[in-house]
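Write out this protein's structure.
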Amino acid sequence: MRNLFSVGDRVIVITGAAGILGSAMVRHFAEQGAQVVVLDRNLEAGERLAAEVAAEGGRAAAYATDVLDRASLAENHVEIMDRFGRIDVLINAAGGNMPGATIPPDKTFFDLDPEAVRKVVDLNLFGTILPTMVFARAMTERGEGSIINIASESALRPLTRVAGYGAAKAAVVNFTRYMCGELATKFGAGLRVNAIAPGFFLTEQNRTLLTNPDGSLTPRARTILAHTPFGRFGEPGELLGTLQWLASDASRFVSGTLTVIDGGFDAFSI
């Protein structure tokens, strides 16, 4: 019987692939038999990850990139097509936040650094748009492919402090839905664009915000968990089932959707 969830031999391109969440995606899809392209600003970290995958019997190749530099992405595209001949799945996992685009408890909206907000919007929104512009072309030429964007809980409801990041991720959701119609109506129904909205996961970017030096939870972390029915942060591996579904034929009629993976945070109220 055909395995609808199989991604064996598919070429999966992942931006921001050397981070905590991205590296979990790389290892998972390599274990599932896919050929994984690791794109990251940190080439050393990307090559180390690709080598670890190869040592475990998987297939991965790493390239340095800048998701805000179309010329850099275009070079990656040539390298990928020369080596693999096609792109089946694009996961736009590059993104992040920065202090100047947030509002700490002792500050207000008027203390935001507009340049920092601009950088956060650029990284998260244009860091999704530009890779899609470059890598989706190979999909349109074949008439099929799956693009998966990474949104956030903050795209669904305004969260305190993360003003710039929330606005950027909300724009990613809108872009996802727009591209669903753009690609399918102009290039064929084999092209799909979806997004996931992770809840709260511990990463290197938010670790100091959510944990103290001794590993205990900060007041903000305790507030988050008090509003999470599961009562804990997510584990990177808990994103992978949804990603596999969206990357595989199991979701062939699914496009323009946002799947929330948050332990019930968005559904919870008192």
